[in-house]
Specification:
Length: about 600
């Protein structure tokens, strides 16, 4: 067990190594596979040595069988002791298979499990590095399929290479060498199997690769739709739309069924063509060696020997061809994994300025932003200065650019023109990971994980005292709620906080923000989905949260931002007007019109 854990930890630490292997754009899937096994060649080499020793019965049995037949058919030339010697040899060779097979699997498994953990680690690391835009474009179900199914397919392919392909090639080499030592004429006959196997693979390769790709893409699509369906179950059941969802999933399942069936059919024709071709070859080999024995050119027992080795070669070649679909599936999964590992759309903090302290001053300097492939500007000529400790609220119609401004402050987005300065430094020059340690975000739809309330409040932090937790619980207006729970802060919140109300989840999120003592607060419509009572409690908690901190608020309910230092009214990506609540109401401009609509 300790060895297994150590292997996983080592594999995880190699995540960055596997990322580097993936970045070699010209590397073939086979070269990538070679790269990720670097550092494990000693384990593989020892495993290969044990493979040779454990496979000895396969190579020795035809020789012993031929010897026994030759002794039995010509007793005048051999003594009875020859039978017992051959018997003792084969028994000894067979019995050694138990310890050597265990050793072979032990060293092989160390290498394969190490790479499996390393690949998953590399994917997880890359997913954490990808930009927010990449995550918006990649469905969660598709990503899960890559981390789970595709890595599993690469692991299965690795096992096939080590457990089936390598022994098969070893069998071919040894069987051919022994046969050549007995008869060069028969060994030439064996060589004819090579062009036949190459022809079969060439004939079916493209079809198998295409069908594997189509099937893999359908599985990813299915994974994405199932993930979406699970998220939508409350909405689906609330509107009585269960049958609609079932029909949608059934449609996807029928598509997978069809593509899976066509893949199975191609593989079936491939396997059958392979089996028939080599059985015909084996019959011709039997006829040829029997004819040589009939002419007296070889002993009768050698017919069994050649037939045994030719059967071994054919079985090995058949095995190589049979596992080709599995190899094709593994190589397709490598391509799928590399789609993520090679993605250039990452947040790269290397060599950038680390942020040790934040005052909380921001300046938006003639900022423009448009998304790739679109001529439409989400933000246009936005200029704004925010003082340290100031509370700025953004209001406006949906699509006006409010949340985009917040994403600029977080560093999820960068302007396509202009600059965003934090404490006088262009945010493009900052190590955003170090900057975000001074930042807290409370979104509209809060994300909790299925642990306890305490775990969710202290998420990612160590060394937090009970006194600190109690203080933020009180500041977040959670104390009365927590005291009513039988397990208090150790109460489980359920998946995504499903056991809690929206207001309770928001207050836990505020407590999570408070305990980090951030210098910059982002509140993205934190009360828009709450009832009046919940909103009251959350508002009280927010008042504690924003004291003395630079705060950016997006709100639809204009009454909730009355105490903001300044309100910025957004319209079609531009700033329409700026002022206090009273100033904007007195001006009777855009803000006044928005307020009238909510009365």
């Amino acid at each position: 067990m300790a060895e297994s854990t150590a292997g996983i930890q080592s594999g995880a630490s190699l995540g960055s190594t596997f990322e580097q292997a993936a970045l070699e754009k010209e590397a073939s899937p086979l070269k990538f596979l070679y790269s990720i096994y670097k550092g494990n060649f000693l384990n593989l080499g020892i495993s290969f040595l044990f493979l040779i020793v454990k496979s000895a019965p396969v190579y020795v049995l035809p020789i012993v069988t031929a010897n026994i037949i030759n002794i039995a058919t010509a007793p005048e030339k051999h003594s009875i002791s020859g039978l017992w010697i051959n018997f003792a040899v084969i028994m000894l060779v067979i019995l050694q298979n138990i310890p050597t097979h265990a050793a072979y699997i032990s060293f092989l498994s160390r290498a394969i499990r190490y790479v499996e953990a390393g690949l998953r680690s590399a994917l997880v690391r890359k997913l954490q590095q990808l930009s927010i835009n990449s995550h918006r474009e990649l469905p969660a179900g598709k990503l899960q399929s890559k981390v789970l199914r595709d890595v599993e397919a690469v692991e299965a392919m690795s096992k096939q290479i080590m457990i089936a392909l390598m022994p098969a090639m070893l069998n071919i080499v040894i069987a051919f060498s022994i046969t050549l030592s007995y008869s060069w004429m028969v060994s030439l006959f064996f060589i004819l199997t090579i062009p036949m196997s190459v022809a079969l693979v060439t004939m079916f390769r493209r079809k198998i690769r295409t069908k594997n790709k189509e099937f893999r893409q359908e599985i990813e699509q299915m994974s994405s739709r199932v993930s979406e369906m699970v998220e939508m179950i409350p909405v689906t059941k609330a509107h009585g739309l269960e049958k609609v969802e079932i029909r949608k999933i059934d449609s996807t399942l029928r598509s997978i069924q069809g593509k899976g069936y066509r893949l199975d059919l191609v593989e079936a024709y491939f396997g059958a063509s392979n089996w028939v071709s080599f059985q015909i070859f084996q019959v011709f080999c039997l006829l040829f060696t029997a004819y040589l024995a009939y002419l007296g050119k070889i002993p009768v027992g050698d017919v069994v020997l050649y037939q045994g080795y030719f059967g071994m070669i054919l079985g090995s070649v058949t095995g190589l061809i049979t596992i080709y679909p599995q190899l094709a599936k593994g190589f397709e999964s490598i391509s799928s994994i590399r789609e993520i590992l090679m993605s250039p759309d990452i947040e790269d903090n290397r060599g950038k300025l680390k942020v040790a302290e934040v005052r909380g001053e921001f300046r938006f300097d003639d900022v423009e932003l448009s998304y790739p492939g679109s001529e439409h500007h989400v933000l246009e000529h936005l200029s704004l200065e925010v003082r340290a400790g100031e509370c700025i609220a953004f209001v406006g119609a949906s699509g006006a650019g409010k949340s985009t401004v917040l994403n600029l402050v977080i560093g999820f987005l960068h302007p396509t023109a202009g600059r965003v300065l934090m404490d006088g430094v262009d945010m493009r020059q900052l190590n955003l990971r170090s900057y975000r340690k001074h930042l807290a975000v409370v979104p509209q739809t809060n994300i909790l994980f299925s642990g306890t309330i305490k775990d969710n409040i202290t998420y990612g932090l160590t060394g937090i005292t009970d006194e600190q937790i109690e203080r933020v619980v009180e500041m977040a207006n959670l104390k009365e709620f927590v005291n009513q729970l039988p397990n208090g802060l150790d109460t489980l919140v359920g998946e995504h906080g499903g056991k809690l109300s929206g207001g309770q989840r928001q207050r836990i999120a505020i407590a999570r923000a408070l305990i980090r003592d951030p210098k910059v607060i982002i509140l993205d419509e934190a009360t828009s989905a709450l009832d009046n009572e919940s909103e009251f409690h959350v508002q009280k908690a927010m008042q504690q949260l924003i004291k003395g901190r630079t705060t950016f608020i997006v709100a639809h309910r204009l009454s909730t931002i009355r105490d903001a230092d300044r309100i910025v009214v957004m319209k079609q990506g531009r700033i329409a007007e700026v002022g206090t609540f009273e100033e904007l109401m007195a001006a009777e401009g855009e803000f006044y019109q928005l307020k009238k609509l909510q009365l």
